[in-house]
Amino acid sequence: MFSPDETKRIAELSRAVREQRPLVHCITNYVTVNDCANALLAVGAAPVMADDSEEVEEIASLAQAVVLNIGTLNRRTLTSMVAAGQRASALGRSVVLDPVGAGASRLRTDAAWTLLREAKVSVVRGNLSEIKALTGVSTATRGVDAAEEDLRGAGLHDAIAAVKALAQQTGAVVAVTGATDVVTDGDAMYTVAVHNGHPMLPLITGSGCMLSAIIGAFCAVAPEQLPDAVAAALGMMGMAGEQAAARTEREHAGTGSFRVWLMDALSQLDAAALAGGLRLERLA
Amino acid sequence: MFSPDETKRIAELSRAVREQRPLVHCITNYVTVNDCANALLAVGAAPVMADDSEEVEEIASLAQAVVLNIGTLNRRTLTSMVAAGQRASALGRSVVLDPVGAGASRLRTDAAWTLLREAKVSVVRGNLSEIKALTGVSTATRGVDAAEEDLRGAGLHDAIAAVKALAQQTGAVVAVTGATDVVTDGDAMYTVAVHNGHPMLPLITGSGCMLSAIIGAFCAVAPEQLPDAVAAALGMMGMAGEQAAARTEREHAGTGSFRVWLMDALSQLDAAALAGGLRLERLA
Amino acid sequence: MFSPDETKRIAELSRAVREQRPLVHCITNYVTVNDCANALLAVGAAPVMADDSEEVEEIASLAQAVVLNIGTLNRRTLTSMVAAGQRASALGRSVVLDPVGAGASRLRTDAAWTLLREAKVSVVRGNLSEIKALTGVSTATRGVDAAEEDLRGAGLHDAIAAVKALAQQTGAVVAVTGATDVVTDGDAMYTVAVHNGHPMLPLITGSGCMLSAIIGAFCAVAPEQLPDAVAAALGMMGMAGEQAAARTEREHAGTGSFRVWLMDALSQLDAAALAGGLRLERLA
Question: Could you give the domains of chain C?
Fold first, then answer.
């Protein structure tokens, strides 16, 4: 596990987000876009959603990070994503890709690869089947809100292999999320497991999309230490899930209340609480 | 009223949904799409939202049911709906149509008829003015979230006539929802009134759309008994509304809390509770 | 400050909304559209969302007011907005414009001006940077959910100048919202400050969009007294924010709960409570 000092350094990135209020430009699906905007506000960032090709380059120029999410993709928004990603990377800003549903249709798998090739994607975050689909490993996908895959034991080994493979292919920082999250950098010199999280998270839509948006906020304030930024975001979402799930169980509530309390937790977690709850483990 | 045994058999369909976790492909409006995804997850199904013509056939092939909802319709998504419906019906899967706002514009009325004609729609669910608009009975509509029409007394008689007319015209199972819900099959041999529900349900947007999505989940696990599946879904949504409304009144809360507790109830209702609360009456 | 009698007269407009249940047609962004629909229902109005050029004129004809919101704008929806606005104004109905993100991209600034020129906009509601962008005063915008600008002291003076300038340029009633809201009419004979509201409101997405939708509902029932209608809507949203924030602080909750309780408050505020809490000040 990370030492207390290392953990604290990672947790402090959340303070930087609240102090700097980075503007994060999201081109994202219409299913969870409201959740993404509220999650960004909850962690202290500022969202801007814009997907038309006539304006995405201007908006991306105003923002400190761009998040591209291919849920409910179409040709019009794919063009906009390429343009926004190119502009952001030309300005040296982080570009996060959430390949929602990669593997479920050729359009999505191809779109993810188009974005990896044409926009300089800094970070990819997906679930195991999505990440595997991008590495060319065939996998059976059940859509975008399928049950959390088991990333313990053999599953964890699988996940580590998948993120390393995609990171080496693309040069991006790659994160796979599930029961355990794994993040690695392009050289696979930094591979970290994040043991925060809760099985209730996949029982609501948007937990993955919100996480990708939050990763954008953390990358915006730590562009020189992207793997740490991603780990911090994964840990913060995981801890928020733990807190919301604990309350849901205590009050015998359901998924509607869990979703509200998840947002509460995101808005109330500060760097000190994060430092006390992050469970990060260096794997390489 | 249904016998306890009949009621229990219907209620058990909710257990099948939680056990089989059917994947439900929705092409739906952007107003309530998040609610539909969360409602599907709450009852134990898995949602996938995709509306681009390049991918809807692949996605529909992965899914166990398709739900077509014409709120915020446009030509691009109508084309996708036809393709998804055709693919699903070719594979023998259920296609649910929610004709949101039929009667309010020619585009919507025509689109609903296009879908009824070109995709083999298995189930239609709407409010009374929407169903009447599709039977050619002229009606004054006030949009898609108009107050619940009175389906008691003369209204109920009206509703029964409307669902039977549309079922005979189309061969689909047809449900009209309001103060009382009525479902009938194409031969009008099975006509059931569902007496669950609460007047608070139309005070939030999305209660109808969520219901249509949930119908998709129930049809996915009971393709051979669609009228029962629809009745089970209507009853489950109705009971969830009753439970959420009771809590809202008890805690002197408003529509924001009602909406959260409705989702809680959907996620917590199990087959036993459902069997104890369903109020189904055979009308024919 | 307004006299108790004047205040009461303004507050009574909320009763007219609940009694008349005006249908409000919104062409709005996909980020907060669900919030707008629920907010309209909460204050007693009925929402209808439709954005396709084939149906917007029919839908606008059914409605008592039209709300045009340029967040996540594109060419397709801009065309629809012009058509809906023209139809509504031809029928003598109110057209509300929310110039979300004006100043952040040329597309949005130009679109707002296109709508001001081609559809007879009755009311414009934005934050200070958006309103300034429309008056041609250059301003640095940080996107659409930027922190609330300080409208106290010098900021308030600035806001008054901006709304008067835009009102005189366009003939519309113009409202700027922030720590203090200001509304003025085209002749600048009526300028009112609304001192309701709370700093938590900009910590969730959609508070501005919901407000613009609610303004549509109030204008629908008081087309002959638009400045009063706008002031009533601003005050009601502000009071709902105060109530939700008080509960959030009392229960040590976060922004997720605040958002739910804001909707609760909107649905529970009646004319009497409003009369007791509105803080309106005539500035001219």
Answer: 4-282 (3.40.1190.20)
